[in-house]
């Protein structure tokens, strides 16, 4: 089988992208996988393609509904309202939290950004089989574009999250500027995990049915609805702290609700993001030749 996109060897032996069909036919190494550097160069060369896919996905979301993309904001707002009624008013998990509505908003919005990015990234190869079989390009463009689309969709939701914090009595603080850095860290993490789950789902399509249960468990293990330090033991809290989503949510809450910086949480979130991206890249690239064969 041919590689997913064409490569040739120049005089120095380095792999470079072919320019013509003749060069492809004579110089391409069958079954060869490009080096990481060549793959990254090819991926960078398709950046406009990735952006176009991302923008197209954002525009197409909820296009058949009366409110359109307003649902990008309404969905987390409605879910937050349900959680506030059940867990804040009825069950009373707001103990230890001064501003439970803002606390809940940060948790719900940040969690859903990661959940939707990774779940959509997991399906990115399966739903684009026709594109994969008809056009040669680095397949990493597809999960990458999906995460970028959800990043764009998250921006208005993030504005609502900040608006809720302000409306419920939180004051602007210089630490709020770090929300941009947190968004970048979370996006890098989402991209890495989308690479991993895309490879897994392409090989085992049943992963689409497993992931919702994984995220359901992750939802409760990330302290979205309650203050973990108040409700769990010190031994159990260790498992929360090892959870990258918990680290990102807790970092966001520290920035907005407390105006404080927790170095341990920042290191945990940043470390997980780098680990996910690097691991995800190599895991995904290893399967480049097989995508679209099924």
Describe the model.
- The chain is mainly α and 294 residues long.
- The protein has one domain (46-290).
- It has helices at residues 21-27, 36-45, 47-60, 71-91, 100-123, 129-134, 141-167, 179-203, 207-220, 228-231, 234-241, 244-258, 263-286, and strands at 8-9, 15-16.
- The protein has a two-stranded antiparallel ribbon.
- Mean pLDDT is 84; it is low at 1-9 and 11-30.
The total of beta strands comes to: 2
Q: How many DSSP H or I helices?
A: 13
The rough form would be described as globular
Distance linking N and C termini: 13 Å
The largest pleated sheet is described as: 2 strands, antiparallel
- The stretches of 5 or more residues where confidence is low (pLDDT under 50) are 1-9, 11-30
* Structural class designation: mainly alpha
Helix content: 55-70%
Mean pLDDT rating:
84
Strand order of the largest sheet: 1-2
Structural Rg: 21 Å
Query: Proportion of β residues?
Result: under 5%
SSE order, one letter for each helix or strand: EEHHHHHHHHHHHHH
Number of domains: 1
